[in-house]
Amino acid sequence: MRGWGCIGVSLLASCSLIATRPLPSGYAVEPGVEPPCSQSNWAAGVDMITMVGTAIGAGVAMDEAANPTIASDGRSSGEDAIAGAVVLSGLALLTGYSMLQGFDRSSMCRSATAAAGLPTRGGSDWALPFVVLGAAAAAMSAGSGGGGTTSTDTDLCRPYQRRTALCRDGMYSCLLNRAGTCSHHQGVSALAVAPRPPHHFPTT
Q1: Contact at 8 Å (CB) between 45 and 127?
Q2: What is the pLDDT of residues 173-188, one digit of tens each?
Q3: What is the distance between the terminal CA atoms of the chain, rounded to a whole angstrom?
Q4: Cα 66 from chain centroid?
């Protein structure tokens, strides 16, 4: 349950404080008995990622607050940006504290485990969230590659297909069914646009 609770609130609170069990206060090490605490520091890795993300978000919000934009209704974006910067900065500090606690708790647990004459584990688990995040980013990047298209221009089409829609991000789609057209490209900007220029096929 600790792990699921961490996953649910890691972006808003502090993962290590939830998922990393500390060594009980006044615990007496017993030879051959594993201490009731968390040796793994994977939660500190989650905190590290969250801390960096919220710190970057706070920086972006502070930049927006320093250079606000005025909406058509005359409302400035500065006030919302200031509030966002304060919240994100607080989350970054809290998550940074949680990260340090996670590393400290797991380190103390591994020390107690070693003192009990047992093998330790989990000292490098902080890198696991980075591996998972990198794998997810690679999968998303591969999945948004246009479905194996071979064209070199801004198309989601194959050379022999006709353009049927212009997406809002400037990409062209050649789907015949309107359902799902430009779904990953900010929606449809225009339908039935001009046919794509002819392609020259290699001669055999």
Answers
A1: yes
A2: 777 666 677 777 777 7
A3: 63
A4: 26
Q: How far is CA 32 from CA 38, 117, 119, 121, in A?
A: 17, 6, 10, 15
Q: Determine contact, residues 53/139, Cβ cutoff 8 Å.
A: no
Tens of pLDDT, residues 128-145: 999 998 998 888 877 665
List strands edge to edge, sheet with 188-191. Answer: 172-173, 165-167, 188-191
Work out the number of other CB atoms within 10 angstroms of the CB of residue 83. Answer: 12
What global pTM score does this model have? 0.61
Distance of alpha carbon 54 from alpha carbon 9, whole angstroms: 14
Contact 2, 17 (CB under 8 A): no
